[in-house]
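From the shared-data thread, chain only:
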Amino acid sequence: MIRTTLATLVLLLGTQAAQAEIAVVVSAKSAVGNLSADQVSQIFLGKSNNFPGGGQATPIDQAEGAATREEFYTKVTGKSAAQVKAYWSKLIFTGKGQPPKEVSGDGAVKKALAENPGAIGYIEKSSVDGSVKVVLTQ
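Structure, as tokens:
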């Protein structure tokens, strides 16, 4: 009985630790303010190319298989990363769109944002520093 209780407790703690908070970020120099999950979803699903106040939005995606990517799409779009991949495959096949540029890791996202003030990406909240501005936390 005690072993079962301890095993359950360890599983619960492990599950909570695996769900890191995601920060949707833009360059610290960007004039973009807070965004809603729906606005971010529209940008990352290619349904909008602009930020709500104006200015072109260029989404930067994390590489396939990254835990941050799965967490982001589940929380912001309500779709799994696999569903988003299927969504983009349809758009590519029909010539209606191209998926966001992919980079590998939080550091690469921050570097991409520094090089393009119109870019928007997502990283683990613990990776946020002065080089980026948080526009949404999930």
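Strands lie at 22-27, 58-62, 101-103, 119-124, 132-137.
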